[in-house]
Write a structure and sequence with these properties.
Layout lengths: L9 E3 L14 H11 L7 E3 L11 H13 L6 E4 L5 H13 L4 E5 L10 H14 L4 E5 L1 H4 L5 H7 L5 E6 L4 H10 L5 E4 L5 H6 L4 E3 L2 H4 L1 H12 L3 H20 L1 H11 L16 H13 L6
Length: about 300
Protein backbone atom coordinates (compact mmCIF):
# COMPACT_ATOMS: atom_id res chain seq x y z
CA UNK A 1 0.00 0.00 0.00
CA UNK A 2 1.18 3.54 -0.74
CA UNK A 3 2.01 5.66 2.29
CA UNK A 4 3.32 9.09 3.13
CA UNK A 5 4.36 10.87 6.31
CA UNK A 6 0.78 11.27 7.50
CA UNK A 7 0.48 7.45 7.61
CA UNK A 8 3.18 7.22 10.26
CA UNK A 9 0.76 7.50 13.15
CA UNK A 10 0.24 4.95 15.90
CA UNK A 11 2.22 1.92 17.04
CA UNK A 12 4.47 -0.18 14.82
CA UNK A 13 6.01 -3.24 16.50
CA UNK A 14 9.58 -4.02 15.34
CA UNK A 15 8.78 -7.62 14.47
CA UNK A 16 11.28 -10.11 15.90
CA UNK A 17 12.80 -12.92 13.87
CA UNK A 18 12.28 -16.31 15.55
CA UNK A 19 14.79 -19.09 14.98
CA UNK A 20 14.31 -22.85 14.96
CA UNK A 21 16.39 -25.22 17.09
CA UNK A 22 18.92 -25.59 14.25
CA UNK A 23 19.31 -21.80 14.02
CA UNK A 24 17.35 -21.37 10.79
CA UNK A 25 14.72 -18.64 10.50
CA UNK A 26 11.41 -19.97 11.82
CA UNK A 27 8.98 -18.55 9.29
CA UNK A 28 6.06 -20.52 10.76
CA UNK A 29 6.70 -18.91 14.15
CA UNK A 30 6.98 -15.48 12.53
CA UNK A 31 3.66 -15.98 10.77
CA UNK A 32 2.04 -17.13 13.99
CA UNK A 33 3.19 -13.96 15.74
CA UNK A 34 1.85 -11.80 12.93
CA UNK A 35 -1.50 -13.56 13.11
CA UNK A 36 -1.56 -12.91 16.85
CA UNK A 37 -0.99 -9.20 16.23
CA UNK A 38 -3.84 -8.92 13.75
CA UNK A 39 -6.49 -8.08 16.36
CA UNK A 40 -4.30 -5.60 18.27
CA UNK A 41 -4.70 -1.82 17.75
CA UNK A 42 -1.53 -1.42 15.70
CA UNK A 43 -0.79 0.89 12.77
CA UNK A 44 1.63 -1.37 10.90
CA UNK A 45 4.85 -3.30 11.27
CA UNK A 46 8.61 -2.90 10.99
CA UNK A 47 10.48 -5.84 9.45
CA UNK A 48 14.22 -6.31 10.06
CA UNK A 49 14.59 -3.67 12.75
CA UNK A 50 17.11 -4.06 15.56
CA UNK A 51 14.75 -6.45 17.36
CA UNK A 52 14.49 -8.36 14.07
CA UNK A 53 18.26 -8.99 14.40
CA UNK A 54 18.96 -7.76 10.88
CA UNK A 55 22.77 -7.64 11.30
CA UNK A 56 22.82 -11.41 11.82
CA UNK A 57 20.64 -12.36 8.83
CA UNK A 58 21.82 -13.23 5.35
CA UNK A 59 20.43 -11.38 2.35
CA UNK A 60 18.23 -14.37 1.46
CA UNK A 61 16.91 -14.57 5.03
CA UNK A 62 16.10 -10.87 5.02
CA UNK A 63 14.06 -11.28 1.86
CA UNK A 64 12.14 -14.23 3.31
CA UNK A 65 11.36 -12.27 6.48
CA UNK A 66 10.10 -9.23 4.56
CA UNK A 67 7.94 -11.45 2.36
CA UNK A 68 6.39 -13.26 5.34
CA UNK A 69 5.65 -10.04 7.24
CA UNK A 70 4.05 -8.45 4.18
CA UNK A 71 1.94 -11.55 3.50
CA UNK A 72 0.62 -11.60 7.07
CA UNK A 73 0.20 -7.84 7.50
CA UNK A 74 -3.51 -7.95 6.58
CA UNK A 75 -3.36 -4.67 4.70
CA UNK A 76 -1.36 -2.75 7.27
CA UNK A 77 1.78 -0.97 6.03
CA UNK A 78 5.16 -2.67 6.43
CA UNK A 79 8.32 -0.62 6.90
CA UNK A 80 11.40 -2.69 5.99
CA UNK A 81 14.79 -1.82 7.48
CA UNK A 82 17.27 -2.04 4.59
CA UNK A 83 20.34 -0.18 5.84
CA UNK A 84 23.67 -1.77 4.92
CA UNK A 85 27.24 -0.53 5.25
CA UNK A 86 27.21 1.12 1.84
CA UNK A 87 24.69 2.91 -0.34
CA UNK A 88 24.84 0.44 -3.23
CA UNK A 89 23.74 -2.56 -1.16
CA UNK A 90 21.17 -0.47 0.71
CA UNK A 91 19.57 0.60 -2.56
CA UNK A 92 19.55 -2.99 -3.83
CA UNK A 93 17.77 -4.25 -0.70
CA UNK A 94 15.32 -1.33 -0.82
CA UNK A 95 14.41 -2.21 -4.39
CA UNK A 96 13.92 -5.86 -3.45
CA UNK A 97 11.84 -4.91 -0.39
CA UNK A 98 9.58 -2.85 -2.63
CA UNK A 99 9.18 -5.80 -4.99
CA UNK A 100 8.17 -7.95 -2.00
CA UNK A 101 5.47 -5.45 -1.04
CA UNK A 102 7.04 -3.21 1.62
CA UNK A 103 5.22 0.12 1.87
CA UNK A 104 8.36 2.06 2.79
CA UNK A 105 11.95 1.42 3.80
CA UNK A 106 13.98 2.72 6.69
CA UNK A 107 17.76 2.71 6.78
CA UNK A 108 19.99 2.75 9.82
CA UNK A 109 22.84 5.24 9.65
CA UNK A 110 25.96 3.81 8.01
CA UNK A 111 28.51 3.61 10.81
CA UNK A 112 31.57 1.44 10.16
CA UNK A 113 33.61 4.47 9.07
CA UNK A 114 32.12 6.47 11.89
CA UNK A 115 34.57 9.38 11.77
CA UNK A 116 33.62 10.00 8.14
CA UNK A 117 29.90 10.03 8.82
CA UNK A 118 29.44 13.78 8.84
CA UNK A 119 26.04 15.35 8.40
CA UNK A 120 26.89 15.97 4.75
CA UNK A 121 27.82 12.31 4.25
CA UNK A 122 24.62 11.12 5.92
CA UNK A 123 22.49 13.53 3.90
CA UNK A 124 24.14 12.26 0.71
CA UNK A 125 23.44 8.66 1.78
CA UNK A 126 19.75 9.24 2.47
CA UNK A 127 19.20 11.44 -0.57
CA UNK A 128 20.90 8.81 -2.73
CA UNK A 129 18.72 6.09 -1.29
CA UNK A 130 15.55 8.14 -1.81
CA UNK A 131 16.54 8.88 -5.41
CA UNK A 132 16.70 5.14 -6.20
CA UNK A 133 14.12 3.58 -3.88
CA UNK A 134 10.75 2.70 -5.45
CA UNK A 135 9.05 3.38 -2.09
CA UNK A 136 9.39 6.20 0.46
CA UNK A 137 12.32 6.34 2.87
CA UNK A 138 12.75 6.93 6.61
CA UNK A 139 15.92 7.75 8.50
CA UNK A 140 16.77 5.42 11.39
CA UNK A 141 18.84 6.64 14.34
CA UNK A 142 20.04 4.26 17.06
CA UNK A 143 23.29 5.85 18.25
CA UNK A 144 23.65 3.54 21.26
CA UNK A 145 24.35 0.77 18.72
CA UNK A 146 25.97 2.66 15.86
CA UNK A 147 27.71 5.60 17.51
CA UNK A 148 26.25 7.77 14.72
CA UNK A 149 23.28 9.94 15.69
CA UNK A 150 20.75 11.61 13.43
CA UNK A 151 20.59 15.27 14.41
CA UNK A 152 17.51 17.50 14.18
CA UNK A 153 19.33 19.55 11.57
CA UNK A 154 19.86 16.42 9.44
CA UNK A 155 16.14 15.67 9.78
CA UNK A 156 15.30 19.16 8.54
CA UNK A 157 17.77 18.81 5.68
CA UNK A 158 16.53 15.39 4.54
CA UNK A 159 12.87 16.36 4.89
CA UNK A 160 13.38 18.59 1.86
CA UNK A 161 13.61 15.46 -0.30
CA UNK A 162 10.09 14.61 -1.48
CA UNK A 163 10.60 10.86 -1.01
CA UNK A 164 11.97 11.00 2.54
CA UNK A 165 8.90 10.92 4.75
CA UNK A 166 10.07 10.40 8.31
CA UNK A 167 12.56 9.33 10.93
CA UNK A 168 12.67 6.68 13.62
CA UNK A 169 14.62 8.04 16.57
CA UNK A 170 15.63 5.36 19.09
CA UNK A 171 18.11 7.54 20.99
CA UNK A 172 15.81 8.03 23.99
CA UNK A 173 16.76 11.73 23.97
CA UNK A 174 13.38 13.40 24.46
CA UNK A 175 14.69 16.93 23.91
CA UNK A 176 16.17 15.91 20.57
CA UNK A 177 12.97 14.16 19.56
CA UNK A 178 10.97 17.28 20.39
CA UNK A 179 13.32 19.37 18.23
CA UNK A 180 12.89 16.92 15.36
CA UNK A 181 9.13 17.39 15.63
CA UNK A 182 9.60 21.17 15.59
CA UNK A 183 11.92 21.17 12.58
CA UNK A 184 10.07 18.61 10.46
CA UNK A 185 7.51 19.92 7.98
CA UNK A 186 3.81 19.34 8.55
CA UNK A 187 2.77 15.82 7.61
CA UNK A 188 6.24 14.39 8.11
CA UNK A 189 6.51 11.35 10.40
CA UNK A 190 8.63 11.41 13.57
CA UNK A 191 8.54 7.97 15.22
CA UNK A 192 9.80 7.44 18.73
CA UNK A 193 11.82 4.24 19.12
CA UNK A 194 12.32 4.27 22.89
CA UNK A 195 9.89 2.54 25.25
CA UNK A 196 11.22 4.64 28.14
CA UNK A 197 9.69 7.80 26.67
CA UNK A 198 6.35 6.54 25.36
CA UNK A 199 3.86 9.02 26.79
CA UNK A 200 6.37 11.86 26.85
CA UNK A 201 7.14 11.42 23.15
CA UNK A 202 3.46 11.67 22.24
CA UNK A 203 3.13 14.71 24.49
CA UNK A 204 5.85 16.57 22.55
CA UNK A 205 4.12 15.84 19.27
CA UNK A 206 5.55 12.58 17.90
CA UNK A 207 2.62 11.03 16.02
CA UNK A 208 3.74 7.42 16.37
CA UNK A 209 6.30 4.99 17.68
CA UNK A 210 8.19 1.80 16.88
CA UNK A 211 8.36 0.08 20.25
CA UNK A 212 9.80 -3.30 21.21
CA UNK A 213 7.21 -3.45 24.00
CA UNK A 214 4.57 -3.90 21.29
CA UNK A 215 6.20 -7.21 20.34
CA UNK A 216 4.96 -8.75 23.59
CA UNK A 217 2.28 -6.26 24.75
CA UNK A 218 0.67 -5.17 21.47
CA UNK A 219 -2.78 -4.56 22.96
CA UNK A 220 -1.54 -2.64 26.00
CA UNK A 221 0.85 -0.43 24.01
CA UNK A 222 -1.68 0.21 21.27
CA UNK A 223 -4.31 1.18 23.80
CA UNK A 224 -1.86 3.46 25.62
CA UNK A 225 -1.20 5.32 22.37
CA UNK A 226 -4.96 5.68 21.84
CA UNK A 227 -5.31 7.28 25.27
CA UNK A 228 -2.67 9.84 24.29
CA UNK A 229 -4.33 10.44 20.93
CA UNK A 230 -7.61 11.12 22.71
CA UNK A 231 -6.01 13.48 25.25
CA UNK A 232 -6.54 11.15 28.23
CA UNK A 233 -3.11 11.99 29.60
CA UNK A 234 -3.75 11.05 33.23
CA UNK A 235 -4.97 7.60 32.24
CA UNK A 236 -2.07 7.20 29.83
CA UNK A 237 0.50 8.11 32.47
CA UNK A 238 -1.09 5.67 34.92
CA UNK A 239 -1.00 2.89 32.32
CA UNK A 240 2.62 3.67 31.57
CA UNK A 241 3.47 3.69 35.28
CA UNK A 242 2.04 0.18 35.63
CA UNK A 243 4.02 -1.10 32.64
CA UNK A 244 7.26 0.75 33.37
CA UNK A 245 9.00 -1.97 35.47
CA UNK A 246 8.28 -4.53 32.75
CA UNK A 247 9.54 -2.24 29.99
CA UNK A 248 12.63 -1.27 31.94
CA UNK A 249 13.52 -4.90 32.67
CA UNK A 250 12.98 -6.18 29.13
CA UNK A 251 14.79 -3.20 27.62
CA UNK A 252 17.85 -3.72 29.81
CA UNK A 253 18.08 -7.32 28.54
CA UNK A 254 17.96 -6.26 24.88
CA UNK A 255 16.54 -8.42 22.13
CA UNK A 256 16.98 -11.54 24.28
CA UNK A 257 14.71 -9.96 26.90
CA UNK A 258 12.12 -8.98 24.32
CA UNK A 259 12.06 -12.53 22.96
CA UNK A 260 11.77 -14.00 26.45
CA UNK A 261 8.88 -11.65 27.23
CA UNK A 262 7.20 -12.80 24.03
CA UNK A 263 7.52 -16.43 25.12
CA UNK A 264 6.03 -15.57 28.49
CA UNK A 265 3.10 -13.78 26.85
CA UNK A 266 2.31 -16.62 24.47
CA UNK A 267 4.11 -15.46 21.32
CA UNK A 268 7.00 -17.17 19.55
CA UNK A 269 10.11 -15.47 20.86
CA UNK A 270 12.81 -18.07 21.20
CA UNK A 271 16.53 -17.55 21.42
CA UNK A 272 18.50 -14.73 19.82
CA UNK A 273 21.06 -15.60 17.17
CA UNK A 274 24.61 -15.93 18.42
CA UNK A 275 26.74 -14.19 19.52
CA UNK A 276 23.83 -12.58 21.42
CA UNK A 277 23.24 -14.69 24.51
CA UNK A 278 19.90 -15.76 26.01
CA UNK A 279 18.64 -14.29 29.27
CA UNK A 280 20.05 -16.22 32.27
CA UNK A 281 17.77 -17.93 34.77
CA UNK A 282 17.99 -15.07 37.27
CA UNK A 283 16.94 -12.62 34.58
CA UNK A 284 14.01 -14.80 33.61
CA UNK A 285 12.81 -14.82 37.20
CA UNK A 286 13.12 -11.03 37.32
CA UNK A 287 11.09 -10.59 34.15
CA UNK A 288 8.43 -13.03 35.32
CA UNK A 289 8.19 -11.07 38.57
CA UNK A 290 7.76 -7.78 36.75
CA UNK A 291 5.05 -9.20 34.48
CA UNK A 292 3.27 -10.73 37.46
CA UNK A 293 3.43 -7.48 39.46
CA UNK A 294 1.88 -5.63 36.50
CA UNK A 295 -0.97 -8.13 36.42
CA UNK A 296 0.00 -9.41 32.98
CA UNK A 297 0.64 -13.06 33.93
CA UNK A 298 -0.63 -15.17 36.82
CA UNK A 299 1.89 -18.01 37.08
Amino acid sequence: MAIDGTTLTGIFPPVTTPFADDGAVDLAGLRRNMQGYAAAPLAGYVALGSNGEFPHLSRAEKERVIAAVVEEAAGRPVLAQVGESGLRETVALAQRAAELGASAVMAVTPHYYRAAMTEAALADFYDGLADESPVPVLLYSIPQNTGVPVSPSLVERCAAHPRIIGVKDSSGNLGQLAEMVERAPEGWGVLNGSSSTMVASFAVGAPGAVLAAADFLPFEVGELWALCRDGAWDRAREAERRLRPVLRTASRMGVAGVKLAMDLMGYRGGLPRRPVQPVPVAGRDELVGALRAAGLIRF
